[in-house]
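hi! just following up on the protien thing from before. the input was this:
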Amino acid sequence: MGKLLLLVLLLGGCVTTVPVQRHWPSAPPELKQNCPELNEVPIDTEKLSEVLKVVTSNYALYHECRIKMNAWAEWYDSQKRIFEEVK
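and the predicted 3d structure came back as:
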């Protein structure tokens, strides 16, 4: 009888729950960097080909940054939503 009582007391201690504080981690600073500055066409440029080079470079920079930032934001938001749904 004493062994049974001891066993019940020991197993009863395993049922006790400890509250755990959960928090969603903030994003690392390197992932929050702004997009690079776009290039400017020099004022004294007379050739249209030079203007087009700058415009093409800016177009590529913008779209590369937009794709990266949108993908990161979508991933981060979906992971946060999943984290918050789990209780």
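The mean pLDDT is 83.
The first helix runs from residue 2 to 14.
cheers
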